[in-house]
Amino acid sequence: xxxxxxxxxxxxxxxxxxxxxGVRADFNAALDRVRAFVADFxxxxxxxxxxxxxxGFFYDLMPPYAVCLAAEGVGDFDTAAGxxxxxxxxxxxxxxxxxxxELDVTISRAAQLDHGAVQVPELILGGIDRIPTIxxxxxxxxxPFVPMRRIRVLGEAIGEYAGSLDERVLLIGSGGLSHDPPxxxxxxxxxxxxxxxxxxxNPTAQARAARQQxxxxxxxxxxxxxxxxxxxxxxxxxxxxxxxxxxxxAGFDAYDPEEMTRAAGHSSHEVRCWVxxxxxxxxxxxxxxxxxxxxxxxEWIAGFGILTATTS
Length: 312
What we know:
The protein is α/β, with parallel strands linked by helices. The chain has helices spanning about 25-40, 90-100, 115-125, 150-165, 190-200, 205-225, 235-245, 255-265, 270-280, and strands at about 1-10, 45-50, 65-70, 70-75, 80-85, 105-110, 110-115, 135-140, 170-175, 285-295, 300-310. The radius of gyration is 18 Å and the shape is globular.
């Protein structure tokens, strides 16, 4: 049993808007270090925690988390489309392990996953079908949210399962940090938007393109200080990274959903993917951080963080 951790922010705007001078080169250098870290670890199995932005999971049935026994990328924002290489026996074993730990678990045999779950594995693994991967959906956009303690406990149980396998397991956490992209919210939505939030799977190419263009336009406006979305919060982001790096995962329990929204934006709840991944890593014992990187990138509507670690 060997575990390694790689948590990264994602952004749909990576290929569409350009950050300020020097930021892209700095990010690319950090990304290359993560890729080298993953290559050196040479995982035989990946457990990847990722959110969704109303591309695969909708309010017709919105679980707090789900183990994917089969999954495919929807291809939004030029991320990979097609099937993940999901080892069904190991994924089912994970679901059974969680059920035995009295963690109510949802499974999906036909999960559709967007850039939130696809971009990071694609960037650091070289594709979503190169290494056997169990995707774990963690709701980070659709209220109500379960207490963060539930996500921490989920991560610890997944870490127990990973530690029981004769595999080199890479734990991926994708999401966050502070950001407030233009995602419709039920309470403020029009009737047409509510129909989409309820069951908007498999949109037409025109509908997807229009939705993506709205996000791109918001990124451009936000970088100019002209958008109405919430500001990024680097201080909040750095404090969260401090806690991730410390390995004191019980500290995540104090995070309150309403305060997170006020301080770090409506989509800051994507850090639940990091919480689950860090808690899974900590279940194997103390860990040592090997990479920590952060930049405030308004062009990507993201407080963008990277954290990698190995067991100590």
